Amino acid sequence: MWTSEECAKYFLCLEEEVFDFKCSAGLFFDVNRQICDFKLNVDNCDITAETVIPKPLLAEANCPEKNQLGCADGTCLPQDYFCDGSQDCTDGSDEAYCDVEHDPNGATPCNSSSCLLPDCFCSKDGTRIPGNLHPSQVPQMILLTFDDAINDENWELYSQIMFPSELQNPNGCPISATFFVSHQYNNYHYTQKLWNSGHEIAVHSITHRGPEEWWSYNATIEDWFDEMVGQANILNRFAKIKMEDIRGMRVPFLRVGWNRQFLMMKEFGFVYDSSMTVPFSNPPLWPYTLDHKMPHTCTGKPFLNKVDRNKQVCPSRPYPGLWEIPLNQLEVSDFTCAMVDSCPPNLSGEDVYKMLMHNFKRHYLSNRAPYGLYFHSTWFRNPDYLSAFQKFVRDIRKQPDVWFVTNWQAIQWIRKPKTLDQIPRFEPWNCRRRFEKIDTACSIPNVCKLHSRVFQQDRYLYTCSECPQKYPWIRNEFGLE
Ligand SMILES: [Zn+2]
Asked: What pairs make up the disulfide bonds (predicted)?
């Protein structure tokens, strides 16, 4: 007989190394489904080898009723039960083959005669320019994004070094970027200031918890709400960011959460996700809506029996009107990388400059898909990298058709494409927005010393709002007693 202790243990093999994991207290590891679940739901703890879940028969079962499909053992169930996230076939076959290629309720391929701007955008291979403009008429958008907490570790970089006032877009507006903010150690006073100066603030979860695969495999829809809507609430309360200005999200570690993540996004009203990486592609891909099947393969095929847990788990269902800003990869000699800091670590400053420029040209000289540069602030601690980046920015700024915009500004352009000569009158890219006094960051924030039950210690929260009673956290995002 196996003990509870043993049933909670599981192992992951990544790149030929074995890692130990343990389910949270009270949960067992389900060998077939490869997730932690309540003890009652797990009856396969004694299985020592991973059993192969059989393929469902689907239409081949010749079910008597319309809208029914067959499990692997021939049992007929309503089509809706397949790939809905809960197991209905006793053999588990209804939930075992649920990537975009196998989900019987999956999104259909792009249909460009019915998928029309501004609310729907797709193309067969994802490389088509919105509005079918000629590349020479398309502004080359640069999307700078920064993930994780904003605080004293990176404030100088974000407030002065990266965005000096002389660095402007062709219309004279300051250049802007997108910040995907996670809660722990985040300074909400600084966050409010960045929002006030025209940057976009988006969501990157409250806990940023590990293990990484939790986001793809274990997080329930409730967890997705708690993490992402919770963080939107925190940003709204403590950085005073208007709810309607919180539009985007990025999953921690880019661990896309299959349909569960996107169901939450649709319910809450998020406008876009920016977590899916595209296999290296020349030319690169434009953002698209999830009305139809994604125009690229998900980097990994996790639902096929051999689970590669190092890969992404993309949504299989359609989500009309929801945008994906996919992460095109950078090419650096023989490598490709999605986040700039996941590129090979041994590059010199000169290599970095060449890499930024080479990939810029792959966009600028082809279909001008937005060029995303995705950072964590620590990457800039290498002074050679910082100056290589600054030189790159100065050099491309000389082009009159290069624009540094936020993700939301990019989506607005895609929704209503404008040629270069129309852009001076394109409202979403001007910088005339004035913040009301009540929305403007205070000069001296409240410094709240708060006890955190979770961390069993005090944490500081910087905010222009009133101090809460407890350190805000998941399921208590307003920090109530
Ligand atoms: Zn992160």
From this structure: 71-89, 83-98
Tell me how far CA of residue 313 lies from CA of 73, 155, 168, 344, in angstroms: 26, 34, 38, 24
Summarised one tens digit per residue, pLDDT across range 268-277 is: 999 999 999 9
Domain boundaries, the chain: 4-95, 130-429
What's the token pair of residue 421? Answer: 């000569």
Q: Helices (DSSP H) in 298-344: which residue ranges?
A: none
What is the Å distance from ligand 1's center to 218 Cα?
Answer: 18
Which residues hold their Cβ within 5 A of ligand 1, which is an ion? 147-148, 252
Q: Are strands 288-290 and 319-324 parallel, antiparallel or unpaired?
A: antiparallel
Cis upstream peptide for 468 (omega within 30°) = no
Prediction pTM value: 0.88
Which of 385, 417, 392, 418 has its CA nearest to residue 175? 392
Q: Which helix (H) or strand (E) holds 359?
A: helix 349-364
C-alpha span between 292 and 122 (Å, rounded): 7
In 3-state terms, what secondary structure has residue 180? strand
Helices (H), 126-229: 155-156, 188-196, 221-224
Q: Which two tokens stand for residue 54?
A: 């059989």
For residues 315 and 34, give the distance between their C-alpha atoms in angstroms, rounded to a whole number: 18
CATH topology of domain 130-429: TIM Barrel (3.20.20)
| Average pLDDT for 411-434 | 95
Cα of 205 from ligand 1 centre, angstroms:
9
Q: How far is the CA of 336 from the centre of ligand 1 (A)?
A: 20
Q: In terms of pLDDT, which residue wins out, 309 or 382?
A: 382
82-128 per-position pLDDT tens digit: 999 889 999 999 998 998 889 999 999 999 999 999 999 999 999 99
Q: Give the pLDDT confidence score for residue 39 in this predicted structure.
A: 73
- Distance between Cα 180 and ligand 1 center (Å): 8
